[in-house]
Amino acid sequence: MSRLGAISRKDRAGRTIAATASSVYGALLNREALESWLPPDGMRGRIERWEPHSGGGFRMVLTYLDPAEGPGKTSDATDVVDVEFAELVPGVRVVQRAVFEADDPAYAGTMTLTWDLVDAGEGTDVTVTATDVPPGIDRAAHEAGIASSLAHLAAYLEAGPSLR
């Protein structure tokens, strides 16, 4: 239960990535990596604050490449999100608490994103589960966005030995 007794919504996406769990974990805690792969299709990201430790976090500005694709949660062309690293288990899990900067109460509240990493032999199964998703975020678009970020993460890690 969350927000005024409503049932917590969960959005989820997963992908097997041809990289070690430690490489995936490293890409979740590397500023330049996150700016590169985390923004979903149609967006670019810039990190303004960076504290890569448990209890730390980051502030990211996501900008729509085509403002007509918006509107954003923070402005017509942007989503600004403050993310806390709630739990860091090297090579296993990263738990983030995300709060969007928005005037619209449909985007209010803290969404939790859990990145689970499981060895899959030749790679790592990465599952992202978002709980307490604000009701203003469309489920299909959100899950497509998570899947897009996972595809970018796979391309980032599978392109070369940068974090392996």
Automatic annotation (TrEMBL):
Top-rank lineage group of the source organism: Bacteria
Q: Which SUPFAM superfamilies match?
A: Bet v1-like
Give the InterPro entries listed for this entry. ASHA1/2-like_C (IPR013538), START-like_dom_sf (IPR023393)
What are the Activator of Hsp90 ATPase homologue 1/2-like C-terminal domain coordinates in residue numbering? 19-158
Pfam families attached here?
A: AHSA1
Q: Can you tell me which family this protein belongs to? A: Belongs to the AHA1 family.
Please state what the protein is called. Answer: Activator of Hsp90 ATPase homologue 1/2-like C-terminal domain-containing protein
